Please model this.
Amino acid sequence: MCQVFGFTLYGYVFGIGRVHCFMDVGDIHAIIVDQLAGLGVGRKYVEGLVQAAHQEFITENNQSWQNRLIGVGHSHALKEDMRVLVDSIFTNTAALQKATSRPTAPRPWWRFW
Model:
């Protein structure tokens, strides 16, 4: 959930920072790092996540799940109703967990351990 929230937040804050506040990219990154670190996420982890998010964001024709999450956050930057954005974080977390989980094979009847 931390990655889903982080990439979505990156897109949202980047949209607000660039469109509304005309901020530099470095300042936007500093805000994101401070906000996530303030929530208890390790600063080094967040700095790496922000660097990865920026790389995903600037790569053309990128269809990765990270870039899609950034796009979700970015698309909600100008909206007032945050419920849809917050709900999307939980929905996307569940979808990502389902997509990356391996189905467990049933045990044969002769194996008891």
Remarks:
- Residues 2-96 form one domain.
